[in-house]
Amino acid sequence: MTTLTRLLPQTPKANAGPLAPTTGVTTLPAIDGVRLSATMAGVRYANRLDVMLAEICTGASIAGVFTKSSTRSAPVLMCQDHLAKFDGSTGPAAILVNSGNSNAFTGKNGFDSTRTLAERTAAALGCAPDHVFPASTGVIGEPLPHERITAKLDELVTNLRPDAGADAAAAIMTTDTYVKGAFTTLDLGAPVTISGFAKGSGMIAPDMATMLVYMFTDAAIAQPVLQQIVSELNIRTFNAITVDGDTSTSDSLVMAATGRAAMDRIDSRDDPRAEQFAVALGEIMRDLAHQVVRDGEGATKFVAINVTGAASDSSAHTIGLSIANSPLVKTAIAGEDPNWGRIVMAVGKSGEPADRDALSIRFGHVLVAENGWVSPSYKEADGAALMKEQDIEINVDLGIGGGQATVWTCDLTHGYITINADYRS
Amino acid sequence: MTTLTRLLPQTPKANAGPLAPTTGVTTLPAIDGVRLSATMAGVRYANRLDVMLAEICTGASIAGVFTKSSTRSAPVLMCQDHLAKFDGSTGPAAILVNSGNSNAFTGKNGFDSTRTLAERTAAALGCAPDHVFPASTGVIGEPLPHERITAKLDELVTNLRPDAGADAAAAIMTTDTYVKGAFTTLDLGAPVTISGFAKGSGMIAPDMATMLVYMFTDAAIAQPVLQQIVSELNIRTFNAITVDGDTSTSDSLVMAATGRAAMDRIDSRDDPRAEQFAVALGEIMRDLAHQVVRDGEGATKFVAINVTGAASDSSAHTIGLSIANSPLVKTAIAGEDPNWGRIVMAVGKSGEPADRDALSIRFGHVLVAENGWVSPSYKEADGAALMKEQDIEINVDLGIGGGQATVWTCDLTHGYITINADYRS
C-alpha cells in the first residue's frame, strides 16, 4: 500500500501532453528544516518563474547523482566538488537552480558565473560558498546572464518558506508541459515525510535520465547511507528511463535529509529502517521518473519494457534500453502497430547474449512470439487492440538466464520532431 | 580522378527523396562471368520485380560481410556457413534474393524455406546447394511463401543475361525510393570493371549499415585478399553510415570476383595492384553507402561528420556515430538550426575521451566553438546559412590525439515518422 501523492499544476498548461497526471494536489508538504522560494528573474523569458532557492538546515545529510557526460556543465562540476567534501554539521546549505540557460559549454566565463552565483548565494543566505549546490537548465552554449539572478537573491532569501515546493517545482521547468512532484509519508519510529520534484522531457536518457531532481526528507539518516540508497535506487528509476537516448550535460539529482524528525539517526544500510526508507524513496523516485517519461516530447504512449531471463540484470537493462531507444520500435508504438519484428531486431542489435529460439515476446498478457517465431495462438487483432491503450507493456523473456530489468519510455511522434526541429532558432 | 558512374532508375518513382542522384546511366555494365535476372514473383506485392538471381562462373572468389545481430535471419546464417567453406574452383555459384519478406524470426520453418530455396536454385542452375548465397529482405516474422519463388526459378535461369544489373538492383528494393548502383573501371594490367548495387533506407546502422549490397568484378583476385579488402573498406563505408541507429537482422554484403580479366591473379594484399583495386572498390562502396543515406527514410539533408583529434580512430568513429544517431542533432538539422550545443551534448554522451576546453566545432569552414565555448568570430547568421544547404558538413576536432573517422547520416524529419509509424499494419 502506498501513500504516494502527486503534485498537480495550479493552472494546467494548454500544451500539456495526453499522459499528464490527473490526480493529486497542488502543493507539496513542508519538510522541517527546508525552506524554498522561487522568482521571475527573466533569465531567458519574462513573466515566468525561472529561479528557485532551497535553504537546508545545519546538520543535514546530502546525497547526489550526476550526468556522466564528458562535457558536463560548470554547475554539475561544482556540485560534484561540493558534495565530495560536504559536512552538514558545519552549517546550512543551499540549492540554487535556474531554468532558461544551462551554462553548459560556456567556457571559463561559465565557471566564473557559477562561482559568482555560489558566492553571492552564500553571502545572502549566510552559508559557506562550498555548501551551495547550483544547477542551470536550458539552452547550451550561451553565456548565463548571472546578474539577472544575483539581482533577485535578496528577494529569494526574504521569501523563503517551508511550503513553496510547488513554485520551486515550476521554476525549474523548461520544455516540460506540467510540474512533476510527489510525496509520501512513512513511520520510522516517528512520522517522516519524503517530498521531491523533477523537471525534464527532452534530452532524457541514462545515464542520468532526468535533467534535474530535488528531494527532501526530515528523516535522520547518515550521509553515506543516504548516498548508498539514492545511488542504488537511481539505477532502477532515473537511469531506467529514456525518451530519445540523448543525455544532458546538466543532469543532477540532489537529496537532502534534515534529520529533524524525532527519530534516532539511521547509521547503517543494514538498519531495518533503512530498507523501509529505501522502499518509500524508491516509490517517489520511480513515480517522478515516470512523470518525466510521460512528459516526453511529443509522447502519446507510456511504455514499460520488462526484460526477464537475460544473462544478467545488466544485460537485461541494456536490452531494455536497446528496445526503448529504437526509433523503429518507438514509431511503431506511435502508429499503434504491434510490430513485434522490430522488437526482435532491437534485441538482436543490443550486442547482449540472446538465443533466437529461446526468446519470447508478450504485449501485456498476450503471447506474441516464442520458439523463434510467431506464436500459433497469436491473433494480430489482440496485439492491435492492446496497442491502442495509452499505457503499453512489452514483456521480453530471453529464456537463457535469471537477469531482469524494467525500462520505461514513450513513443516517437510527429510532436517530437515539431518540438525539436525548431527549439532554438 | 574517378571514373565512377551511378545507376539511375529507368522510371523515377514519384516518392523519390530530394537527395536522389540526378546524374548517371540507366544500366550497369556486364561483368564477364556474371549473369543476372529478375522477375515478379508476388512475394508480398504484385506487379513489381521482387526476386533476383545471379549466376557466378566457376573459379570466382567470393567475399562477404554480414550483420552482427544476434537475431539474424536464416539466409544470413546460411550465407555465413556457405562462405566459410566456399571454393569457387569446384563449380559455379549463385545469389538469390527476394524482397517483400525477410524470413527473419520465422523459426524452423524459416530455415526450411531457405534450405528449399537453395536446393531448388542449385538444381535449376546446376551448381552445388552450398554454393548458393540467399538473402531475403522485407517484413520480419511472417512465413516466407517460398513456393512463389521456386515457381519462378526456371524462368529466372532462362532469362539470365550479363546486362540485367539494373533490373536486379530494382528487384531487391523495399522502402527505397530509387535504385542504388555504381560502377567504375581501372587498369590492372588488363582493363577491369567493378559494378555494385545496394538497397536500404530504414533500419540502417552499423554494424552493418546497409541491408543488402552485391558487387561484381572481373578482376582476378584470390579469395582471402578479396575478403581482406572488403572487410577493411566496409569499416569506413557501410559501417560508417547510419539513418536511425537500428540494425537489420538481414544485412548482407556479397562480392564476387570472376577472374575473367586478362590479368595475373592478385594473390597478396601487398601486390601494388591490390591497393589500386582497393581504392577503386572503396569509391564504389562509399558511393553506394552515401546513396543509402541519401535515401534515408524522410531524409532532406545529407550530413558528413568528420571527427579528428580523437584519442584513436575507433574513438573518433564512436563519437561520430553518437552525433549521427542523436535525435536532437538530427532534428536540429531538419529544422536548419545551427544548434551546436546538441553536438557538444552528443560528444559528451559518447563515453569516449573528450576535453571540453580542447574541443572545436566547425559547420563546413565556419568555426563555431573552440576553447570550451562559442568562438568570438562566430555569427549565427553564418551557421544558419550553411544549415540551409542540402549537403552539410560537421567538423569536430577533439584536440586530444590523432584519431579520426568520418560518419555519414541524414536528418530526422516528419517523413521518417510518417513512413515508420504505419509501415506494416
Automatic annotation (TrEMBL), chains A, B:
Substrate binds at residues 174, 199, 210, 297, 420, 425. It catalyses: L-glutamate + acetyl-CoA = N-acetyl-L-glutamate + CoA + H(+); N(2)-acetyl-L-ornithine + L-glutamate = N-acetyl-L-glutamate + L-ornithine. The keyword Transport does not apply. It is an enzyme of class 2 (transferase). It comes from Pontivivens marinum. It comes from the Bacteria. It holds the Pfam family ArgJ. Belongs to the ArgJ family. Keywords: Acyltransferase, Amino-acid biosynthesis, Arginine biosynthesis, Autocatalytic cleavage, Cytoplasm, Multifunctional enzyme, Transferase. InterPro entries: Arg_biosynth_ArgJ, ArgJ-like_dom_sf, ArgJ_beta_C. Residues 1-22 are annotated as: Disordered. Its main location: cytoplasm. GO terms for biological process: L-arginine biosynthetic process; ornithine biosynthetic process. Catalyzes two activities which are involved in the cyclic version of arginine biosynthesis: the synthesis of N-acetylglutamate from glutamate and acetyl-CoA as the acetyl donor, and of ornithine by transacetylation between N(2)-acetylornithine and glutamate. It is found in: Cytoplasm. CDD domains: OAT (cd02152). The record marks 209-210 as: Cleavage. This is Arginine biosynthesis bifunctional protein ArgJ. The lineage of its organism: Bacteria, Pseudomonadati, Pseudomonadota, Alphaproteobacteria, Rhodobacterales. The active site is at residue 210. Its EC number is 2.3.1.35, 2.3.1.1.
